[in-house]
Amino acid sequence: MDLTKTVGYVPGFATELNLRELGGLPTNDGRTVRRGLFYRGSSLVGLSAQERTLVDAMGLRFVLDLRAAGEASGKADYLAEGTDYQRIGGMRFEDGSEVDFSPEAIAKFEQMDPKLFEDGTFMERLYVNMAFGNPALQTLVEHVASGEVPVYFHCTAGKDRTGVSALVVNLLLGVTHEAIMEDFLLTNEYRRSIIEAVADNLPPDTPPEIIERWQKANGVNESDLLAVIDAIDERYGSVEAYFEGEYGIDGQTLDALRDRYLE
Fold this sequence. Notes:
This protein is α/β, with parallel strands linked by helices. It has one domain (3-258): Protein-Tyrosine Phosphatase, Chain A. Helices cover 46% and strands 7% of the residues. The longest helix is centred in the last third of the chain and has 15 residues, at 222-236.
């Protein structure tokens, strides 16, 4: 796929940063999201001088870091002067503790339960949990609602926590489900080199099914995001009811936000 021809492509960044904008995405009422306001991606760590210049040019007012404390420790984002920054873990277990996707933490997951990832529902459950009572998403929506844009939200890889966050922002703006899913699945194109290199980083005798599992873990799966959409519909019945129930945004305010951010 030629990523330069996709709607949200932002030139100048390494594709592995998984960085793009929501600008240009079509909405249910025939409009499109204004450009240069909503950016998603991976952590702003290890950027080249050119990439730092591009971040400066974005004019970001707010950066929301969805990483767990363990992931962010010693890996601070590059921030342009004057940018407001908050780190709020985007995924949490039922006991409220942050889901940490650092390599060390993932290894501990598997030591505690070797079959944790085998049934294919582990990430789906975490995705669904993100959509309800989530301090990180509440903070993101509050900043968008108050006009504190341009905004950049990210996790470590810019795919799971960032993907659900992008879903919520896109639903807020009235983006079509088709466009939401297309944007979500672009992660598999941006991270293609990482996904394809998985086998090189595993022992030579690793079974094919294990390689495939880790390849999927380094990309995103459509079924995980569909589960979130279904859960919102099941719990609230409509997008409008979801935003009023979770974020206190009524229909009139929702319409006003869309008028502000769509064209």
